[in-house]
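Hello,

Our lab assistant flagged a job as stuck in the queue for most of the afternoon. It eventually completed. Since we weren't sure the result was trustworthy after the delay, we are filing this so someone can double-check. Below is the sequence as submitted and the structure that was eventually returned. Let us know if re-running is recommended.
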Amino acid sequence: AHHDVLTGLPNRLMIQSQLEQSLGSAQRDGKKLALLLLDLDRFKDVNDSFGHASGDELLQQVADVLRERLRQADVISRMGGDEFAILLGDIKHEEDAGIVADDIIRHLSRRWHLSNGCEVAVGVSVGISLYPTHSLDASSLLQHADAALYSAKSEGRGRFNYFTEELTLDARNRLELEAKLMRAITNNELEVYYQPQLNIESGELIGAEALVRWNDPDRGLVMPGDFIPLAEQTGLVADIGKFVLQSGCRTLKTWLDQGKTPITLAVNLSPVQIRHADMYELVSSVLEETGLDPKYLELELTESALMEREKESIELLQKLRSLGVRIAIDDFGTGYSSLAYLKKFPLDVLKIDKSFVDEIPNDKDDMVIAATIVAMGQNLGIRVLAEGVETQAQLEFLKSKQCHCYQGFLFSPPLPASDFERLINAS
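-- returned structure --
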């Protein structure tokens, strides 16, 4: 009564029951759901040309592929004929449904080999509706997904549409950006820029923060804020982080070998890298590969990334420091800012977040916060660096509080390696 005899999948009655249960849970827990309706393109041609037995076999193969591509927690159903439904439970981002739909379209749009020796080619169109964005009840979700499916088929098939045009456009733009970013990594379109870091008292150049830029052939120079969040969501950030680390260490080693002023290189590690990559192995292999003395490398991590997994973070930092590198906390003051964890974590540098520097000397609260962070660093024997210094008044205030160093547009924006090299030569 609840399963399709041909494919073994839940049937329409079962998916409606599952949908109502999932909506109840999502409402209680504040979660998002997505309902995808799939319709095979040109399936009628298979039945007309090769017979219903071939059509049935194709539907069984499609059901097998859907089972392989989806999570165990997702519900796949055959609604009837060549139409399938997929219930995605607990999605984090609305665009995630579009990513799943795109994956399904790619894996179903191919030539299928049948047992009678025939080859058939079909595609698939997908309509997507979301809870709670589009509907709050099961009946409306199904209706809206059906309307989105009709829209996708009318636009030429082999595509997905959300119930709303805006979400469809956003999801397609994200998928396009992801494809371009994968190409950028392969085609060496990424470049490392270097933000100068200076001693606040003497004005001496003491370091550089390595920052990635994307030279997109179509859009020109793309800033990290426009693609790093996507890279973190898709896992591409590991490849980007490795590139920045390798490129920065290699460049600094070259400068040192040429007898230029020794400086420290600061490289950011994203929370995704810390959670999913073996950072110790990566850093040690890059240091060995480039020949850079570890004392010149500084690894920057955010407060939130460390506090997500406190015990594991302490162990990781201790292992990294055993290599001889320095550890910095980036964006300090925006998260926990706890003396307790400052005492626990093996740290060398605190970076005052730009948001606390922007309004100095006009905002007294920001001035108090910045001065407090400097005092904390001094008392704990940790160097303090202020980010985003753009005015002389900001610099003078930080100097009066005996902040150790700074970076920001007051001295220089991030520079390509060739321009930064000229800066070192002049120092």
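-- support follow-up --
The delay was a queue issue, not a problem with the job. The result is valid. The longest helix spans residues 165-186. The chain has a mean pLDDT of 88.
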